[in-house]
Amino acid sequence: MQLNTHTHLIYFFKKTVPLFIFILLFTSLCTSCATRDRVMKAKTLEGKAVVYPISEKTAWEVTKTVFKWNKAGTIKEYPEQKFLYSETKGIEWDSWGAVMGAWIEPVDNDSTKVTVVVKRRLATSIKIPFTEEKFHKDFSYAVDCIQKGEQLPEKSPHNK
After folding, report:
1. b or e along 112-145 (b: 16 or more beta carbons within 10 Å of the residue's beta carbon)?
2. Chain segment 109-118, per-residue pLDDT in tens
3. Which of 85, 147, 146, 89 is CA-nearest to residue 115?
4. CB 87 within 8 Å of CB 35
5. Kind of pairing, strands 98-108 and 111-120?
6. Domain boundaries, given as residue ranges, for the chain
7. Which superfamily, per CATH, for 35-147?
8. Rounded-to-integer distance, Cα 120 and Cα 30, Å
């Protein structure tokens, strides 16, 4: 028996529409795993804070540099909240990347507390491409460069 075009279309839609809906739902669940709101909520419990001997303005610029060194995409700045946010660019076989947020809070004129939170974009990723420890290692390096009067390099010396 030969099927007409109408029957083929019905068969196609019966098979592909449920799959398409599943993919849309799965994708929306996965991409919402780590968001700016989740990063902001994690500040108190998961954030790693260090006080640096630099001004708030310098800390703000160093934070952007460290984010860029670690594959940050667009960096969103929220000065009224003293907060910067970004997501790493690209996806690798073992990681969907990370989302990161940093709070820049003056302690006094010459010291600034920098708190950072980094989360996997997708909770099931095998590794996280960037961590709070890596952020502060890079940040400390940048502060040392600034205090020595050196220009910051284009890339982190800690990236392999």
Report:
1. bbbbbbbbbbbeebeebbbbbebbbebbebbbeb
2. 899 999 999 8
3. 85
4. no
5. antiparallel
6. 1-31, 35-147
7. Kinase associated domain 1, KA1 (3.30.310.80)
8. 11
Show the tokens assigned to 69. Answer: 């060194």
Host H or E run for residue 69? helix 56-69
Asked if residue 105 lies in contact with residue 113, where contact means CB atoms within 8 angstroms, the answer is yes
Number of residues that this document lists for the chain: 160
pLDDT digits (tens, 9 = 90+) for 11-62: 666 767 666 666 655 654 555 455 766 766 767 777 899 999 999 999 999 9
Return all residues near 50 (Cβ < 8 A) that are at least 6 apart. 113, 114, 136, 139, 140
Which residue do the tokens 């994690």 mark?
Answer: 42
